[in-house]
Design a protein that fits this description.
With about 425 residues, the protein is α/β, with parallel strands linked by helices. Helices cover about 40% and strands about 15% of the residues. It binds 4'-deoxy-4'-aminopyridoxal-5'-phosphate. Pfam families: Aminotran_3.
Length: about 425
């Protein structure tokens, strides 16, 4: 495969854009370096780069593209919004329609607010929780990523840990001091943290199913324990469902797992590919938010008609019967095929899979249950595998900490082709 145009554009991008990328996770730093592939267009499960190479896409733009690229129903909705004038700076009926849709799917969102990114959504849940409880500290789980606002860039998972920056520069120690991190799936650790700081803690923030050190499910009883312990100290439970909402079923991970938080942050899929975030929760908590209450949050682009229209269209498509079962089946087929071929060539690997989302970890055969486990896996081997798969026309995320996402656009043939490509990649890996 020839990547010469990507190499050229990368050199040019480096002259204008810091690091050549507008989000560090797009760089190939964590997979041995080199020019990232510059994509040009996408359709369904495929996208094409600037050298004309076609890839089966499992990156899904880090999650939002659950229907693949350029779905006509979503494209039409965005086109209509553009023709009607993109932005008014006033409320619209669309926002009510979407808020209703989200609340009926995720009933814990008694009141909601739209913002523009997952970062904003999580950042604001924390502010509101602090306003409501009149406390400052938050507890988060090591390796969980919650966007790039100051408070949550501590032991922050995928992007930062991939690049080896556990705590970002530019964040005052005084802010980091307000954050306590405990290992995921460790109720004992949480109980201990709460014993020390429970009465100063505004909220415990958690990805109910982790997506940021690979896909890691909560162990049975973990989330129930988080609720029980947190509420015992009068703190709030915030679920970061930026990756998980509408990923595994029509609703949040909370509905799938039957455990409910006080507040939830959303993003990615609910924007159908356009920028969006949302947060919501119990009415009395949300009433802290301006103009009703003293916690301020605002946005020129918040609730913009294009993002809302794309989100509605995306969710409409997810209401069709059988879509989630199909992604689950394709996910299972992919998992079984990848494991069988890895075994054939003697590679020690393990796959954590939740329905249509999975992570293939190298150098480990036991499931990954926390960040330490994920860190102990073999990133160099993953990097080599990533590049071999790219050469085969399969695009994964360039980090051992990310997920492969199956979309509604993938077919059994795509999965079969991917397994055959993985077979060739594993064979070459064994020879290296
Ligand atoms: N929370 C989680 C769980 C995420 O995975 C991400 C992004 N990967 C964010 C928050 C931040 O979202 P955004 O990139 O839209 O700001």
């Amino acid at each position: 495969m020839n990547f010469q145009n990507s190499v050229h554009y990368y050199q040019e991008a480096l002259q204008y854009i810091v690091g050549g990328v507008n989000s560090p996770s797009r760089s190939f730093k964590a997979v041995g370096g080199g020019a990232p592939v510059f994509m040009e267009r996408g359709k369904g499960a495929y996208f094409w780069d600037v050298d004309g190479n076609r890839y089966i896409d499992y990156l899904a733009a880090y999650g939002p593209l659950i229907h693949g690229h350029g779905h006509p129903h979503i494209a039409k909705a965005i086109g209509r919004a553009a023709e009607n004038g993109l932005l008014y700076g006033t409320p619209t009926k669309l926002e009510i329609d979407f808020a209703k849709m989200l609340r009926s799917a995720i009933p814990s969102l008694e009141k909601i607010r739209f913002v523009n990114s997952g970062t904003e959504a999580v950042m604001t849940t924390i502010r509101v929780a602090r306003a409501f409880t009149k406390r400052n500290k938050i507890i988060k789980f090591a390796g969980c990523y919650h966007g790039h606002s100051d408070l949550v860039l501590v032991a922050a998972g995928s992007g930062p840990s991939t690049l080896g920056i556990p705590d970002s520069a530019g964040i005052p120690q005084s802010i980091a001091n307000e954050v306590i991190t405990v290992p995921f799936n460790d109720l004992g650790g949480l109980a201990e943290a709460l014993q020390h700081w429970g009465h100063e803690t505004a909220a415990v923030l958690v990805e109910p199913i982790v997506g940021n050190f690979g896909m890691v499910p909560p162990e049975p009883g973990f989330l129930q324990g988080v609720n029980e312990l947190t509420h015992r100290y009068g703190a709030l439970v915030i679920y970061d469902e930026v990756i998980t909402a509408f990923r595994f079923h029509y609703g949040g991970a909370q509905d799938l797992l039957n455990v409910y938080p006080d507040m939830t942050a959303l993003g990615k899929i609910i924007g159908g590919g356009l920028p969006i975030g949302a947060y919501g929760g119990r009415q009395e908590i949300m009433e802290q938010v301006a103009p009703l209450g003293p916690a301020y949050q605002a946005g020129t682009m918040a609730g913009n008609p294009a993002s809302i229209s794309a989100g509605i269209a995306c969710l409409e498509l997810l209401q069709e019967a059988g879509v989630y079962d199909r992604m689950d089946q394709l996910g299972r087929m992919l998992e079984e095929g990848l494991l069988a071929t890895a075994k054939r060539y003697g590679h020690p690997v393990v796959i954590n899979r939740i329905k249509g989302a999975l992570t293939l970890y190298f150098g480990r055969t036991e499931p990954v249950r926390n960040y330490d486990d994920a860190q102990s896996t073999d990133g160099e081997q993953f990097g080599r595998f990533f590049k071999l798969m790219l050469e085969e026309g399969i695009c994964l995320a360039p980090s051992k900490y990310e997920a492969w996402f199956v979309s509604t656009a993938h077919t059994e043939e795509d999965i079969q082709y991917t397994i055959q490509a993985a077979d060739r990649a594993f064979a070459k890996l064994a020879d290296q």
